[in-house]
Write a structure and sequence with these properties.
This protein is mainly α. It has a domain of about 40 residues. The protein contains three helices and no strands. It is elongated, with a radius of gyration of 19 Å. It starts with 6 loop residues before the first helix and ends in a 28-residue tail after the last helix.
Length: about 70
């Protein structure tokens, strides 16, 4: 059985980091085909969706007009 190399990175076998990206997604984003092949060989799941982290919360009164500011 092959060990997933990134399981030691964050102890999450899905490999999703704090920004919501998997190592496979990051390799694909960088067009690093050899890394993508290596990740697949070691059990990466390319079907795991990238999770966009929540954005910064809005502050203030969204109903105000520009003139009111």
């Amino acid at each position: 059985e092959k060990k997933i190399w990134y399981s030691g990175y964050n102890f999450d076998l899905s490999g999703v980091d704090e920004s919501g990206a998997t190592p496979f997604w990051r390799a694909a984003y960088g067009s690093d085909v050899p890394a993508m092949r290596l990740l697949l060989e070691y059990g990466a799941d390319p079907s795991i969706p990238t999770i966009k982290p929540p954005g910064r919360p809005r502050t203030g009164d969204a109903d105000r007009e520009i003139e009111d500011v």
